[in-house]
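Hi team,

Filling in the usual template for the complex we talked about on Friday. All components are listed, including any nucleic acid strands or ligand strings, so the model treats them as one assembly.

SUBMITTER: L.P.
PURPOSE: interface mapping
COMPONENTS: two
RESIDUES: 678
SEQUENCES:
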Amino acid sequence: MNLFKLSWKNIVYRPLSSGLSVLLLASGIAIILITLLTTKQLDDKFENNVKDIDFVVTAKGSRLQALLCNIFQVDTPTGNISWAKSNSIKMYPMVDKAIPLSIGDNYQTYRIVGTTPDYIDLFHGKISEGEIWSKPMEVVLGEGVATKLNLKIGTEFAGGHGLGESTHSHDDILYKVVGILERSNTVLDNLLLTSLESVWVVHAGESHQAKGSLEVKRLDDSTSKESIMTLDEFKRQDSLDNIAIEKSAAENHDEHAHQDHHDHSGHDHGIHKKIVNFDSILKTISPLDREVTGLLVKVKEGAKAKISTSAYINKMKDMMGADVAIEMQQLKQLMAPATGIMEMLAYVIMTIAGISMFIAMFNSLKDRQYEISLMRVLGASATKVFASILIEGLYIALIGFGVGWLFSHLGMQVFSSYLTEQYHYDFSGWVFIKEEVYLLVGAILIGIVSAIYPAYKAYSVDLSKTLSK
Amino acid sequence: MISVKKLTYKYKASNGISFPDFSFEQGDQALILGQSGCGKTTLMHLLSGLLKPQSGTISINQKDISKISRGEMDHFRGQNIGIIFQTPHFIEALNVLENLQITQTLAGNAIDKNRIQTTLDDLGIVHKIKSKVKELSQGEKQRVSIARALINRPSIILADEPTSALDDQNCNAVIELLKQQAQKNNATLLIVTHDNRLNAVFTKKLILS
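RESULT (copied from the run log):
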């Protein structure tokens, strides 16, 4: 039975008052820590995802939305921009990189993004299995998608239309997994990446029908072919002839006529394997009609590069260039009051915890005056008595911190599974930050400060007076 | 082994009290008697070093405790003096065993569970060893406080009205035990009281006026 045990027994003996102090301290710690953990993880995601991007070029609309959709992959697109015009931005001398994105379909709520391999390089993504797509309808998976949906190389699936849970799926042409990326802690982790052509192929005909005004242009005739096929992007289409996939978009119409609806998803039915020529599908879409959702632009080094690029983009009709740095600043400003209020609330609770601890200890010591004197009679020095009260404060601080710490991480874990499900953003409760050490020190200080006066009272107790009561 | 000379003590706003000179040998058992207000409790607090006298000397085992510092006194008291109070108090958060263990620790001794067991056994309350102190009867509490006074083998046991809260039966039992145990441990036993029931049991008496 030493002082540490004695102090512990004294705390346990008064569960209500110790419990209240612990609870208040723990709540304060938990609120501060959850706020810190959330902002820290958000900041990290932000940092990782916007690195190396100066502008987001999209159809006119909300700049913040453009950013959220094209960089963070959370909001819906502002519209589409012309592929040809976006290429002119790519050619602009001040532009270092311009990466097109085609967003609009999903697989089990995970976004399918049509892009170029540059997009993977932008986030320093690395292939861990398989390879990068080389043909339309080949897909590379982010690590998170592969794990959560349990998809393997070679798996085929139909993309769903839209970004939420879709009612309508593009089951006439199937995607095929050819590669899986390493975890990068960026948006890549939760995306399915494919070529721009895949998205065009999937939406061939359909998008034009939806638009109504645009007619599908048959470009099979050799006279116009040359002028259209000059674009580098279509060079490799020469090698796309005679690729076998289960169904071709072209032949699909025939199947409809044959009332063969039942096996639209039945890719194991070998009898329906048809030859599809992507070339012929792509040829039905004029390069002038090809569209993308947005363009991520990185400018070259140089003081004027940003200004001049911005001016160039914003001069174009039907397009806008959102400056990532400015929009991020605004996004942070939007979030600042919320986290500020949380933090303030937490400090108020911490202060109340300190005061309540002080009152609880002070009251309990008033009841324990005789016990304190008794300890002295039994040979304890005044310093030992002082120490034993401080230890009590320290215990409460440590337990309060421990409980608060545990709850904040558990809470984050629960909260993060919700976030992951809702936004396909990976948060985790098991992220640890250096501020936790400061919080521990803070909690210990609160424990000591609120115990110091009661401890002094115990130290200076008048033995004779107390014992003759 | 205990001797008091020219001892005076003065509370604020009161006349000072002077105590007669006296001395006892190791193993003596004596009553200190007197009417209420004559300074019995003050004398006891002086003897146990809880109060410092204005003048005079108190020497226990050749040590003048009126001259030593507060910290030294706390340690000396823990080692050499066992005290039994009128109403027994304990550390409520601890059970009987733990109260006796902390008594050993605070005096600077190692925990000796055997000693605790035999002492409680001698006092007939070893079955209460795991009890919470709050659950003990008045008589049991007084026995535990005797055990506490004895546990560190002090050379002197001071008891302040140890029987005033007890009925006759418990009073006799407690006094018997106290005498027995003091003798067994060869401790000097001084009982401050105005309880006439104890008069017949002790031969040595110091009367304060």
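MY TAKE: The CA atoms of residues 19 and 43 of chain B lie 8 Å apart. The beta strands of chain B are 2-9, 17-18, 22-24, 29-33, 55-60, 63-64, 81-84, 156-160, 188-193, 204-207.

Thanks, L.
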